[in-house]
Amino acid sequence: MNTSLSWIKAYVPDLDVTAQEYTDAMTLSGTKVEGFEETDADLEKIVIGQIEKIEKHPDADKLVICQVNVGNEKIQIVTGAPNVYEGAKVPVVLDGGRVAGGHEPGQRVEGGIKIKKGKLRGIESDGMMCSIEELGSNRDMYPEAPEHGIYIFPEDAEVGADAVEALGLHDAVFEYEVTSNRVDCYSVIGIAREAAATFGKKFVPPVVTETGNAEDAADYIQVSVENKKLCPRYCARVVKNIKIAPSPKWMQRRLASVGIRPINNLVDITNYVMEEYGQPMHAYDLDTIAGRQIIVKTAADGDVFTTLDGQERKLDKDVLMICDGEKEVGIAGIMGGENSMITDDVKTVLFEAACFDGVNIRKSAKRVGLRTDASGKFEKGLDPNNTKAAIDRACQLVEEMGAGEVVGGMVDVYDEVREPARVAFDEKKINRMLGTDISKEQMIAYFEKLDLTYDEATNEVIAPTFRQDLHCLADLAEEVARFYGYDNIPTTLPDGEATTGKMTFKLRIEQVARDIAEFCGFSQGMSYSFESPKVFDKLLLPKDSPLRDAIEIMNPLGEDYSVMRTISLNGMLSSLATNFNRRNKNVRLYELGNVYLPKSLPLAELPDERMQFTLGMYGDGDFFSMKGVVEEFFEKIGMKGRRIYEPKADRPYLHPGRQADIVYDGKLLGYLGEVHPQVADNYGIGTRAYVAVLDMPMILGYATFDRKYCGIAKYPAVSRDISMVVPKGVLVGQIESMLLQRGGKYLESFELFDLYEGAQIQEGFKSVAYSVVFRAPDKTLEEADVTAVMKKILNGLESLGIKLRE
Amino acid sequence: MKDRLEQIKKEAIGAIMASDVPEKLNDVRVRFLGKKGELTAVLKGMKDVSPEERPKVGQMVNETRAAIEQVLEETKSKMEQAIREERLKKEVIDVTLPAKMNNVGHRHPNTIALEEVERIFVGMGYEVVEGPEVEYDEYNFEKLNIPADHPAKDEQDTFYINKEILLRTQTSPVQARVMEQGKLPIRMIAPGRVFRSDEVDATHSPSFHQIEGLVIDKDISFADLKGTLEVFAKELFGPETKTKFRPHHFPFTEPSAEVDVSCFKCGGKGCRFCKGSGWIEILGCGMVHPHVLEMCGIDPEEYNGFAFGVGLERIALLKYEIDDMRLLYENDIRFLKQF
Known about the structure:
The complex is a heterodimer. Chain A is α+β, with helices and mostly antiparallel strands. Helix content of chain A is 25%, strand content 28%.
């Protein structure tokens, strides 16, 4: 929504503010001004001058020398403009002044152009005469300006006067952000009312006078509304003996200032009233209306209709149409038809000002594929009580401008009259809600500034129907607050019952995950929750993989963002690939983000959102560095039990011989491994990469911050080294299981200290050496205690096909 | 005898003085004080001394031994000190050589900003909670006073899964979920991922983060909301920060406001950063709409409260002067390492 300051002042005559003051105050009272443009920002020292004498330039064919009277002096100006003549009154920029731009349309220059005395082809020139474009405006606003050349003032213009003033360019155009609840502020009158209340000035809306001849519009047109829900009110008036002509300058300028191009008096009137009252109107050529009747009803599926822009539009049964006795003549609230549009030889016009259902208009405009200024207003949901004022105002303008003869009376189909809302008032509650101490009288004064009335008898505030946003006490509190000033409301802190500030256990564990990952050199990344269904092929998932059962978005931004991820690897691998492409070395990333597993498809209930702790790296480090991070994490969150790394995980996206499922207490917690070279290729990662994924919901079941101190050993430990020749197929994990199984109560720890495969070892075997430590909490261990246990361990190891080395 | 001892003492001190390394001192100790040393030999000769003389001679031997030991210790100590000093001289390193880094990883700027916000509100007694990212229309819209056919529900803003289920467009549905649980009073913040169908560019992302705040108690006022958010802004952007509350409209709060903070780059004078206005918009807020309270099973006559929503990326971009939102989701290590 835009308005010029001068248009607002037309209804708030006492308003005397700068554009900046207006912007600040209106924004603080709730009508947010997004920005403004001062039309005279770059205009300086420009007066009305009269050309007294024109001579040829001695050295240039296309230039002339003008003697110009600028009031208190006469100056000489050299110009190349083709349209100057002796006696013409023109805008003159004096030496040291500024203009807004060049003389071609759209040539505005930031900060303007400084004009100085100078010589043109050897002849002194003391200033410059300017075109409308140089004054920063255009021929839409000043259609009387020539297409090429200097702007010429009317003969009665005062020589020496401020040319900018004379053109009405001491103005500013504001752009507002109107919130969806304030439908009334999509009109100049609505904003002017707010401005008057904000600055405490008198609000003077247009006075709409009685119009029309002795005839009755009902004799010209009959209206019936079949769908009253979609059209609560339909007003029609008739104007005959139409005289199409340009509208007056003031109207053209006001329309152009808000970006509407003036066309002719009739079209301009409907546009003007739409801006002024916020009520779109339409004008039909009454002679094209068959049977002199208007029927408002919905279209049939498959109907095709040509709108006045010449385009064919496909309709359906939910699109509301304006029809005559035979045919469709307009899409209600969106655009009229070509078959009934106003032409230059129109004789009789039917004005329509109606109220249509906003939701229906919005949906229809979308389906039909046609959003217009009118539909943009209707879709907010307009006040049916505004239509009469708007149509009467249009007829008043027709009479004032001599655009035709207004027929008396109005055809008005309006069954369910909308009544003003009555809201119970309670100043104590409002003060409690706001934390203020504002008197009842003050509150009522604020209401009255806004045309809300207070009914003392019922202690109610009556909101006119244009204020559709006022329903309850909280709504009234906001009106009080914005005119009392949000700034003036005190600042306090809630007292009430004390509450404990805390994080959920899940969030605390995630914090530990971040700490550990970062400690181990991993930086945090973030990737999107939705991705392409092609991801599954990239990750080599088999066709029947349940991970392919992803939730699809109905209206995605494109296929690349169309399914909710069921596996977190794609984001990580894509990020690693980005870094690899950019030649970043030694990259370690982690992410904490959800995957979304549907319980059934199509989705009937919310999916299982599972937080995944995903790590990925390439460069320095290997599988065991990644395993180290995972182990550090488990230690830190108190998962002291044995983590089992199950090698036969069969995950297609990982290297078949370098992957493991992570199992704890018999439950799968996640996996890690080297990325399958084919997958790495698919992502363009040209090196070995490693990933680990931990399923946080599973981990939360085991994580704990409880710790118990169990004493520091007082008695000496006994250590034994075991050197073994182990068949290749036996995993170190099996040896460790055996140590745990048979180590007895004195087993304290064990450590792998040598692993060797190669020349000195028999083919098919590897050399493994462990150091095993025993300790008793309550005594010094004796040789016999250890020997017995060692014998059990060694027997066990031999049963795995392991030979002990001498 | 006395002369003999004097002689030994003299010889021993001479040998000590002649020693240049600790090993030689040890030789001296063995030669004079050892089991087979010269002083021991003198003691062994005590059998030739008369019993009356013996204590006297014994004392003389001990004195001699003590004298030699003292010189020996002093010399040894001096010698060791000299050696240590020599070693320290040799061990000088170039402390300006590069450090051996552990190469600790870096936290995402979003998370750093979020942890700041969490710290502030947890300190004021707020609980940090979460809600689902795939959400029912009912929670995302209806319970927040955005009925069917409201323009905000228009498809162009919301990603739908089906008619009832969508990707939440805001963290506000967590408000409704927490209120429904009925545990009062409530002081909570709910950070999380939200989704809007905006094409990716320097200032838009179809996926971003918000932090929702909600306080429900008896007698909560707009003044409390102002005070709370003032504390928040000062904590987050510095003690000089000023706040400005502008009336606005949100369907689930009434009265509603947008909050600007004084530009922390220019202090409010106006600069390129704040587009010359001196103010930067950071959040939306308001008093929870009584209708929303009712829909969530809270009696608006007894309880009321306020809510606010902050865009996390907005805070992160502002605080760290990041000029392109896409950087946040590219995960380029050169970007992440700066935080």
